[in-house]
Design goal:
Layout: H1 8-16, H2 20-27, H3 31-37, H4 40-51, H5 55-58, H6 66-77, E1 82-86, E2 95-100, E3 103-110, E4 122-130, E5 138-141, E6 149-155, E7 163-168, H7 184-195, H8 208-221, E8 227-232, E9 247-252, E10 258-266, E11 269-274, E12 286-295, H9 306-310, H10 314-317, E13 328-330, E14 337-339, E15 341-342, E16 350-352, H11 354-360, E17 367-368, E18 370-380, E19 384-395, E20 400-405, E21 410-416
Parallel strand pairs: 16-21
Antiparallel strand pairs: 1-2, 1-8, 2-3, 3-4, 4-5, 5-6, 6-7, 7-8, 9-10, 9-21, 10-11, 11-12, 12-18, 13-14, 15-17, 18-19, 19-20, 20-21
Helix pairs in contact: 1-4, 2-3, 4-6
Length: 423
């Protein structure tokens, strides 16, 4: 059958099945195909099919043509949709690019104030890509205090879908160090944004050391304020019959505040990779490694002293009792029953967020579902003398973890990032 004789509604249905990149070529073959290719419902279908961008994501925007939005914004920049890690020295970061009100918007996620891991992440917009009144898409940098201004995006020549670099066209619009000196007011504003603290919380004696670390971070991040490379962050995949599902977690790291790790599995190991880092252990390093072949079931008596935990004979505690020895509870996600075991914290161990979590939420921290031997990565500033130190990995629930650093005499608390980054 000659496609030129098909009724318009059938031709439109056929065009909807074609990739957007092929529609432009077909439109050049004849007048009828060109007119059909201009039907906006075809391009709305392609936006949904290829980029999962529909009317809800475009609502509130001044988009007169889905064809324009597809050809000028989504087709050249749609590969940026997703989660990225900015390469900002040892600090890293977490950025999500999504369509909001008809504009591709890059948002950087900020950790809550230490040690409140139960609070949601803060959000700060970094740049946008949207339709301009004329011509190609308009890319705007949102940093600085002088309003939005132009930004250039350059994909990686070797892996364009995995890496890109942004470069601000007006770096003079950004807050910056003046001859190496810090503007105290700008530093205060930045700390409040970075950590969500109130003015009265800043520069008190309790936070002096932490503020000094933040001052160092502020100075370092200024180096990446105008030019920064982003690397793609792949989504986690569900794994059945595991102690906890992979994903992003906020954790307490002492003077460095709260940092984000990505929990994932590698054979019989569970690994916690740093998404955000610090001068001691930078982003992308393996903060924790958990040996799933070394489970533990401990009594309260065995947890009474730190020295007792250090001297544990793992061979004698690896076999966890059946659910009849503890309170059985449906595991839900794992699809198996879990045996609760008691959890206690030796008096010599410093609590990094456990007490705060207990006071502010209804999470039970006197028992856990799983406990494993593992190691944590520690280092001196500059990632010098890096070494792995013994630790216990504790699962309180699907969303709350503990990591007991034995030699450091401290317990870090981790809370799952509630924001769904990959939808």
């Amino acid at each position: 059958m000659d496609m030129h004789t098909l009724p318009p509604e059938l031709l439109i249905g056929i065009f909807k099945k074609l990739p957007g990149k092929d529609l432009a070529s077909i439109a050049m073959t004849c007048k009828k195909f060109r007119e059909t290719s201009l039907v906006d419902s075809i391009w709305l279908f392609r936006c949904i099919e290829e980029y999962d961008v529909g009317p809800d994501e475009m609502e509130g925007a001044n988009i007169e043509s889905c064809r324009d939005f597809y050809t000028k914004v989504l087709y050249p920049y749609g590969h940026l949709l997703g989660v990225w890690q900015p390469q900002m020295g040892p600090y890293g970061g977490l950025v999500k690019i999504q369509v909001m009100a008809g504009v591709l918007t890059a948002s950087r996620y900020l950790v809550p104030p230490d040690p409140k891991v139960y609070l949601p992440l803060g959000v700060k917009k970094v740049f946008t890509i949207g339709l301009s009144e004329e011509g190609p898409a308009e890319i705007l940098c949102l940093k600085g205090n002088k309003g939005s201004h132009k930004l250039a995006i350059k994909p990686s020549p070797t892996t364009p879908n995995k890496e890109f670099t942004i470069k601000c066209c007006k770096p003079e619009n950004h807050k910056s160090l003046r001859k190496g000196r810090i503007n105290l007011h700008e530093l205060r504003v930045w700390i409040q944004e970075e950590e969500g603290r109130e003015e009265g919380d800043l520069f008190s004696h309790e936070f002096d050391h932490h503020v000094e670390l933040l001052r160092m971070k502020y100075m370092k991040l200024n180096e990446f304020d105008c030019t920064c490379t982003y690397k793609c962050f792949d989504p986690p995949h569900r794994i059945d019959v595991m102690p906890i599902q992979p994903g992003l977690f906020k954790g307490t790291y002492g003077g460095h505040g709260i940092e984000i790790i990505y929990l994932t599995y590698a054979e019989n190991r569970l690994q916690g990779l740093k998404v955000t880092g610090d001068p001691n252990v930078p982003a992308s390093k393996m903060s924790m490694e958990v040996h799933l072949d070394k489970p533990m079931f401990l009594t309260y008596e065995q947890q009474h002293t730190l020295q007792g935990l250090i001297e544990l004979d793992l061979d004698s505690v690896r076999t966890a009792p059946s659910s009849r020895d503890g309170d059985a509870d449906a595991a839900g996600d794992a699809g198996t029953s879990r045996a609760w075991q008691p959890f206690g914290l030796p008096v010599e161990v410093h609590d990094r967020g456990m007490d705060t979590l207990r006071r502010q939420t209804d999470v039970r921290l006197d028992r856990c579902t799983h406990r494993y031997f593992g190691t944590g990565l520690i280092a001196m500033p500059g990632f010098r003398d890096a070494t792995r130190t013994p630790a216990h990995f504790i699962v309180f629930s699907e969303d709350i973890l503990g990591f007991l650093w034995l030699e450091l005499r401290s317990l870090s608390i981790y809370s799952r990032v509630a924001e769904n980054m990959w939808t």
